[in-house]
Amino acid sequence: AQTVTQSQPEMSVQEAETVTLSCTYDTSENNYYLFWYKQPPSRQMILVIRQEAYKQQNATENRFSVNFQKAAKSFSLKISDSQLGDTAMYFCAFMKPSLLTNKLIFGTGTLLAVQP
Amino acid sequence: GAVVSQHPSWVICKSGTSVKIECRSLDFQATTMFWYRQFPKQSLMLMATSNEGSKATYEQGVEKDKFLINHASLTLSTLTVTSAHPEDSSFYICSAIAGGSEQFFGPGTRLTVL
Asked: Are the Cβ atoms of A107 and B93 closer than 8 angstroms?
């Protein structure tokens, strides 16, 4: 069974600085997707970034980028130029593509606080 | 695009009553919908997966008779919490897939059982 581990329950960063959130996972699959979701105080889940395992190039979305190390089964999220609106819970998630279902397996989350 | 709505956003009910939560995909047809439960400061726990026109697949440990899921159309899934008790109080989130890899999440429903 796949598992996702986020070892940092809480993190804090100063506005405009860079922060990296860690995520490791365990799977025997070769084809899968990895995601980072953001859940702000409104509790609406927002997709931050997605990585396909077959792609060697790390995904980037504006200030958000990942460091995907497939052999090490590591998938960290880097947030550059942190903004107050980045304050949220961040969840790392794994998905094995399937014809019947595309279930997400979530990590326990990291609560990020951006300080002014 | 890809908007998922939930109704109601917050419901309070008495112990022993049943509550229905609706999840709708507003601008796409959802081949698969998911229901999650989230306790305060915790992660999302998948309760069940439903495909339109077929029975839901429940995760281990989730009571099928307590949490009834109906996916009657490609845009609507409902979760009914039957004979609710205070321990069922939680935040319930649905999501939907349109055939790709991305799940689109609803805003969630806060259930409080008195």
From this structure: no
